[in-house]
Design goal:
Layout (H helix, E strand, L loop, with lengths): L9 H22 L29 H8 L4 E11 L2 E12 L5 E7 L2 E7 L4 E5 L8 E3 L9 H10 L5 E7 L2 E11 L8 H9 L4 E8 L5 E10 L2 E13 L10
Antiparallel strand pairs: 1-2, 1-11, 2-3, 3-4, 4-5, 5-6, 7-8, 8-9, 9-10, 10-11
């Protein structure tokens, strides 16, 4: 059950709470690689854009992923959702990965500008389109983050066809993995996405994923059909560092 700040007029409070609930769903689904109201099977993964020239710093993805699960880290994140080639929303923020998910984010789309802060025991949301809007506190979800290393392992398990080879992403050597995953395959590594897509009749989706030499995901793309329109989530990870503390916002 949600808890609220001071009691404004009934209509105003209902509007704020509804917006808060909506943005929590948007923010968390973007972080887990799933956004919107998709239906139908995912589209095939994009073709590799790897250059024929060898990339310096080549590594084997299996070994890199084994290292990734040993050390949690923080990363800056930018997630963009597009449909029919048009940008629908953008989420930027910073989060801890490979451990209990905590972080902060800002979500923008037409008519929407929200902030979220997720701590170890709660989620806080603020509607920036309403002047003077305070933070709304809600219980945190126990499974609001995707296991990106888990996604990479699922792709590798599909066999050699998933291994697209070395590329450079943002000046960093990265290994490109790609393939199509059935929805049931992600139940244990991304339960929130599994629940959401099951309810919408989705059976699978295309994935492109790039990991660095430490097994950290630097780029994640997910393709699906959304109400008859091709949609894609594009998530970039950068500025990796030690795990950080995200405290409850003031005010």
């Amino acid at each position: 059950m949600m808890t609220f700040p001071a009691r404004p007029a009934r209509r105003a409070r209902r509007t704020t709470v509804s917006a808060a609930v909506a943005v929590v769903a948007v923010g968390l689904s973007v972080l887990s690689g799933c956004k919107g109201s998709p239906s139908g099977a995912g589209t095939p993964a994009a073709a590799s854009s790897a250059s024929a020239a060898p990339v310096a710093g080549a590594f084997e993805p299996e070994q890199a992923l084994a290292e990734a699960e040993k050390t949690p880290y923080a990363a800056s994140i930018k997630a963009v959702t597009e449909a029919a080639g048009q940008e629908l929303s953008t989420m930027t923020g910073r989060s801890n990965l490979g451990t209990l998910f905590t972080g902060r984010a800002e979500i923008r789309s037409t008519g929407l500008w929200m902030e979220t802060v997720t701590t170890a025991d709660a989620n806080y949301v603020r509607n920036r389109t309403q002047q003077g809007s305070g933070w709304v506190k809600a219980p945190r979800s126990p499974d609001n983050e995707a296991n990106y290393a888990g996604y990479a392992k699922l792709l590798l398990a599909a066999g050699p066809s998933a291994k697209k080879g070395m590329e450079t992403r943002g000046g960093v050597p990265a290994y490109h993995l790609a393939g199509h995953l059935a929805l049931d395959q992600v139940a244990s590594i991304d339960p929130r996405t599994h629940r959401s897509m099951t309810a919408k009749g989705v059976t699978g989706f295309g994935i492109d994923q790039w990991i660095d030499s430490q097994g950290r995901t630097v780029r994640f793309e997910q393709r699906m059909e959304m109400r008859g329109v091709q949609a894609v989530n594009k998530v970039d990870f950068s500025e990796f560092g030690p795990v950080e503390t995200f405290a409850a916002p003031q005010g």
